[in-house]
Design goal:
Layout (H helix, E strand, L loop, with lengths): L2 H15 L5 H9 L17 H16 L3 H13 L4 H10 L2 H7 L6 H9 L3 E3 L2 E2 L12 E4 L7 H7 L14 E4 L4 E4 L14 H9 L2
Antiparallel strand pairs: 1-2, 1-3, 3-5, 4-5
Amino acid sequence: MSTTSRTRAKTRLSRALGVALTPKAARIMEKRPYAPGQHGRTKRRQDSDYAVRLREKQRLRAQYGIREAQLKIVFAEARKSKGLTGENLVELLEMRLDALVLRAGFARTTAQARQAVVHRHILVDGKLVDRPSFRVKPGQVIHVKERSESMEPFQVAAAGGHAEVLPPVPGYLEVELDKLQARLVRRPKRAEVPVTAEVQLVVEYYAAR
């Protein structure tokens, strides 16, 4: 799939789910705040409970850019953990390396953050990690590999070039953007995580299956 096709598909998915997955999708949704297709402007018929839960699950999965199998694995872990399953789910997802690379401002989108990890530009505590799903622990330091710092995308990031399209850095991260370095201070709390999803409906979706 070409870059243009991927961008178009991501924008269409954003409009269908009602949540901007990229900065470009956010701009388009300001102009066209309705679902794609010929019936997008018309009032949506009353969805079934299943459809509502499914859409929330899809929204959560799309914002982290993960496969269904990956989400199910994290959900199973969240359900076994102490506390509310839905909140645990988001908190565990937020500790993914690619999610934190994005929150720190080292990338502009989830896809770019994942690419930075996969292409071996990111270190955790000085060790190369090329797995986007890597679970960062509180206290660990994320930073861009020294040999990669001079690359244009990271130079733009270090200068704060993504600030206008990203939410403010959450309290669970300490970021030294000019050094392309960030530390996970503590486990994220659901209320701080800039993700749009009714997590209880996601829990109900999996509970009903």
